[in-house]
Amino acid sequence: MRRWWRWVACASGWVALVYVFFLAFVTLVSLTDPALTRPHAQQAQVIAARGTWSFGTLRGGRGARLPWCQPLRWLDPPGPATALVSFPGSGNTWVRYLLQQATGYYSGSVYKDYALMKNGFPAESVSNGSVVVVKTHEWGPEMRKVFSRAVLVVRDPYSAIQAEFNRQSGGHIGHAQPDKYTRDGGRYWEKFVTTKALAWMNTTLDWLKFEGPLHLVFYEDLLDNLPEEMRRILEFLDQEVSESNFDCMVRHQDGIYKRRRRPLNFDPFTAKLRALVDRCRRLVDRAVREMLAGGDVSLVVNNMNYANVSKENHNPGDR
């Protein structure tokens, strides 16, 4: 019996050692890849799309293979650092994909998501002007001052919160199982909605105060009229694209990270939760209307009395 336990302990040690070496190897490769560590090189290296993406790999065999419209490359010379900001679950990754398809330029991120890095977004963790936009869900003056301009994507809070719940429970294109909503007698879901509703409000209100050029995009408008909304984004980014590349983007607009709809057969939002989400949405709507009317958004936001809605005015650090 003792000899058997020694064998198990020895095997476990070897497995742990191999795992540590594997992590070290992956980290070393990502840090020494010249395409990702020298984004400001004089001769920006053009990295061709890695073959084609297969919907079958991620979606159980449904759909066709989707090629890139053009090889991806760095912005050379670099442009202004541009934030692509949103609350999680609002279509940030989708917009990144559309911009890469239309412009042929990498999009970056303040994060380093290895799943995204290996599946179409190799410039993860690059957050400067060598990429067309930089993904972020963070807010606050320290984050805003990093960027020269920003594209703010806003989605209806009910849809955004549920999309983020699906992502945390089922991955980038998965869904939360119904029993997730009733976990701990529903307290887990209630806490999640409360936290995320406040984060949705704070993220949006904070970036509406951005002092540089700001382009506001509504996720629902992208769904209803993708070509027109994308042309406006491209114009804001000073990106001229050929009609052939633009048409290619429209034809392949779904990408591989657009979650398919799976309606629930019940309403997970209680009356109490709806009252909170509606309150947050009204405050954001007021600030958005002020912005669209050309008013002083900072003054409006700073004078808002939403202390009774959010007792914590800090960045929760959500991804």
Automatic annotation (TrEMBL):
Limits of the Sulfotransferase domain: 148-252
Gene3D superfamilies reported in the protein's UniProt record: P-loop containing nucleotide triphosphate hydrolases
Listed name of the protein: Sulfotransferase domain-containing protein
Record-linked SUPFAM superfamilies: P-loop containing nucleoside triphosphate hydrolases (SSF52540)
GO molecular function: sulfotransferase activity
Family: Belongs to the WSCD family.
